[in-house]
Amino acid sequence: MVQRSWRPGKPLLIGLPLVLFVGGVVGLFLAQGPGGGHTATNRAQLKSACGGLLPYDELRSLVPDEVEGEVSQYGTVLEPGEESRSLVNCAVTWPGHGSVRVRAAALVSPMPMTVKVEDIMAGAEKESYEVPGVTGRAGVDGPAWIVAECADGLARQVREVSQMYVTADVDLPVPGKGKQGRDLMGIRTAVHVANGITGRQKCGGSPLMEPTRIIDTYEADVTADPDGSNIRTVRVDEPGLGAKKCRGLGRRTGFPGNWTAVGDLQKSRLLNVCTATILDRKDWTETDPMPPDAVTDVSAASWAGELGRSAVEQYDYTGDSYGFQKGRRTRVISEGERTELALWARSTCAAGSTYHRVTVTMKTGSTDERTLSEAQRATYSHNARELMDAYLTDPQGWPRQQRCHDSEVLGEAEGWQ
Predict the structure, then answer these.
(1) Which of 208, 212, 203 minimizes the C-alpha distance to 181?
(2) How many angstroms separate the CA atoms of 335 and 367, rounded?
(3) Rounded to whole angstroms, how far apart are CA atoms 278 and 104?
(4) Is the dihedral of CA 235, 236, 238, 241 positive or negative?
(5) End-to-end distance of the chain based on CA atoms, in angstroms?
């Protein structure tokens, strides 16, 4: 019988990798825990979802690990054989842990987001944000939205169309930035998707700049006594106050009073909104006395291209367009009705056919029912036409910046009808 000596070196060299391997597998299993370990799969899914249009580099770190993602998607960009107004309609969801939803559609029918003046300039009533250089908004009810151009036209549509709207809702935890951070991510995602679509369709124009910040359009500091009484506004911050394109509104028309104007911050060639008032912006009760039937508030807005048709249809739906009220002229203002008269016009501007709308609101002193005299009603019409002319010809105003010409007046819309 031959005895062999024990040599420990070789078995240890073979056994050590095995121990490390087994330990690593056990450690990985314990680290994943129940329902975990989906990060890599979810990131790969995110990268390919929605036709690869999502901003993967920005969203990848926000993808949850706890559950597997689910994708639902359709649209002409994803399925070239389809005929649909939807270019992309896509959702990536992680049940119970967040989602990313985007939609892009050609503007061949009214867009679902409101572009009416009272909603774009909503003030303190709604938390909302804008981005210079981007037509759109975030922070209002619903997802962030933008309107983008495709100069040479979008493919596979029922008619020629060069504009689309894109919405994006990013329901994921953006570290340390709260709701405003999510709104910024929503706008950035919408811009990224729009640029991806225009790039693939090779429809001309420059890509939109992806924003690095959003601007709160209205902030007010309000104080009150401990018992909730004596509420007063200490400071109102409106970044669009005194906007150069709006300064002449009211003042250039010759309406008496100390006018202050505010405008949107989008610097868009598709959309413009200005409002002006002689009322004190912190407390309207502190306004200097004014004569009867004085003009107290005015507004002016423009919408270009397909966005213009969408705006007209939105006003038509509520009975406030020139077409809806065509041929009707009244003098009875019912109790509680608006004392506002709107005048519509259309021009050819840099982005194509453009609709303009101006409004004048006159002091009534009461919300009771009243009947305008013929002279008062004529004054309304005169003031609205003066305002429209001043808006279209203001050297610093948006219509001149956009080279608007061949303007025609379309008609009035009485706010009290």
Answers:
(1) 212
(2) 6
(3) 41
(4) negative
(5) 117
In residues, how long is the chain?
A: 417
Rg (C-alpha) for the chain, rounded Å, is 29
DSSP 92-119: EEETTTEEEEEEEEESSS--SS---HHH
112 phi, psi to nearest 5 deg:
-75, -20
**CA of 182: how far to CAs of 59, 124, 169, 179, 395, in Å?**
11, 20, 8, 5, 38
**Structure pTM?**
0.85
Residue with tokens 């809806």: 324
Q: Residue 93's closest CA among 72, 120, 123?
A: 72
For tokens 């842990």, the residue is 97
Greater confidence (269 vs 236) lies with 269
The per-residue DSSP string of 163-189 comes to EEEEEEEEES--TTTHHHHHHHHHHHH
Q: Which helix (H) or strand (E) holds 39?
A: helix 39-48
Task: Return the bridge partners of 106, or none.
Answer: 164
Taking only the tens place, the pLDDT of each residue in 25-81 is 434 333 344 457 899 999 999 999 999 999 999 999 999 999 999 999 998 888 877
Using CA atoms of 146, 147, 148, 149 in order, give the dihedral in degrees to the nearest 10: -170
For residue 122, give every residue at least 6 positions away whose Cβ sits within 8 Å of its Cβ, in sequence order, or none: 128, 140, 217, 218
Place 335 in a pLDDT band, splitting at 50, 70 and 90: confident
How does pLDDT run across 140-150, given as a tens digit for each residue? 778 999 999 98
176-180, 192-196, 237-241, 382-386: lowest mean pLDDT where?
176-180
Bridge partners (DSSP) of residue 375 are none
Residue 143 near residue 186 (C-beta atoms within 8 A): yes
Q: What digits encode the pLDDT tens for the residues 151-207?
A: 887 876 666 788 999 999 999 988 767 788 899 999 999 999 999 999 988 887 789
The H-or-E segment that residue 273 falls in is: strand 271-277
